[in-house]
Amino acid sequence: MNHALIEIKNLRKSFQGQEVLRGVDLAVPEGGITLIIGKSGEGKSVLLKHIVGLLRPDSGEILFQGRSLTGMRRAERGALARSMSFMFQNMALFDSLTVFENIALPLREKTRQGEKEITARVMDKIERLELGVVAGKYPSQISGGMQKRVALARALVTEPRVILFDEPTTGLDPIRKNGVLSLISQSRQTFGFTALMVSHDIPDVFRIAAKVALLDGGRIVFEGTPEEILATDMPVVTRFLAGQEETETDLEGAA
Ligand SMILES: Nc1ncnc2c1ncn2[C@@H]1O[C@H](COP(=O)(O)OP(=O)(O)OP(=O)(O)O)[C@@H](O)[C@H]1O
């Protein structure tokens, strides 16, 4: 992990006069997992959506290997979009498609590969993510943890350079949560992509992150390693981490 693959500079975004991102600066190093944390509604998903081009900034820049997204020609932006995948919380699997067909979908949509190559690529991911037994099943016939594994296979099948994860473990129990986090970490080592992830699984998710960035008040107010964020006495960080613990305790108490 060394230079920044993606750089976000002074990014601003308002919705109906309400400024959500107020000058976000963030460097995402190549390789490794960069984690974005922050309170609910701070704009973490909005930030990810700018990187995949689903939202356009009011001002500021997103650089990919030093090149500005807005300055790129259409063809170049298209190629870049094909080199990224995402696993977003609301991007569920298609119920009417089998696991195999769900994984094949990005290849059918984003590439011109023939049936033989598609089958080979899908089967490779199915084998590596140990999904063989469920390949012919429909999403409703498999567990939530298995569905996340399928969603990960779908994100990986185009062999992307960057994968964005928006709360990839939402709705899973603690054991399955940790299973999915380990799977993401192992897949990253095997396939070598750069990951940018939004997660509330604190502190569990720290063990797989190389870098942590805290979004607060529309800006990144802390960047560092997991060890650094746990050790800092910056009030904005300690308040946030203490709040997370309370939420966890409340949820456990309510369960
Ligand atoms: N397309 C949109 N139009 C209007 N407002 C939006 C839009 N997208 C996001 N917002 C607003 O931007 C703010 C930030 O939303 P966002 O989903 O990024 O928060 P978040 O930090 O990801 O929260 P959570 O942790 O709860 O998922 C919210 O107030 C949301 O209502």
From TrEMBL:
Keywords, comma-separated and alphabetical: ATP-binding, Nucleotide-binding, Transport
Keyword check for Nucleus: no
Domain of life: Bacteria
Gene3D superfamilies: P-loop containing nucleotide triphosphate hydrolases
Gene Ontology molecular function: any one: ATP binding
Domain ABC transporter: start-end pairs: 6-242
SUPFAM superfamilies xref list: P-loop containing nucleoside triphosphate hydrolases
Name the UniProt record assigns to this protein: ATP-binding cassette domain-containing protein
Entry keyword annotation includes ATP-binding: yes
